[in-house]
Design goal:
about 160 residues, alpha/beta, about 20% strand
Length: about 160
């Protein structure tokens, strides 16, 4: 199978970005293109600086080289609060994504759901309605999904 590279002008949206699962997934890989952006999105009211602190606090900067990479990565990150819930929150996220996509021929969007399964259905519907890019690929990634969950209701209706 051929390895696929992340395209330029890609935005990764981490839904549930202030939670523990999202923090654990921020790793040291050097696979991101120069125009890659990360947008954190969660109900917590955080500033961009507070979101950057969350990222920094989980990273182990055991070398000056990695510390510099982390600094560059954090410069690519921003945060949108979804504290209002529903349409207003998705419109705020859409506005940020549109700003990041200005003057670009394409903008690809990866939506990483670090959320409980009960939120999958409503969040994925909101993303599709308000936040999908009309000029690029859109991908929805389920962060942690328990295939052995004991009741299908906890799966958020994804099997429909």
């Amino acid at each position: 199978m051929e390895e696929q590279k992340i395209k330029e002008d890609t935005v990764l949206v981490i839904l549930g970005a202030s939670g523990d699962l999202a923090r654990k997934k921020l790793e040291r890989r050097n696979i991101l293109p120069s125009k890659f952006r990360v947008v954190g999105f969660a109900p917590d009211e955080l500033s961009d600086d507070e979101f950057s602190s969350i990222i920094s606090s989980r990273a182990k900067t055991d070398s000056p080289r990695f510390a510099e990479k982390l600094k560059k990565f954090i410069a690519c990150c921003s945060y949108v609060s979804g504290h209002e819930g529903g349409e207003r929150s998705f419109l705020a996220l859409k506005e940020r994504l549109d700003v990041l996509g200005e003057n670009k021929k394409e903008q690809h969007r990866l939506f990483y759901m670090a959320l409980p399964p009960s939120a999958f259905r409503s969040v994925s519907a909101g993303l599709r309605k308000y936040c999908y890019s009309p000029r690029g690929h859109n991908r929805l990634i389920v962060g942690q999904f328990d295939p052995f969950a004991r009741n299908t209701a906890s799966w958020g209706g994804l099997i429909d």
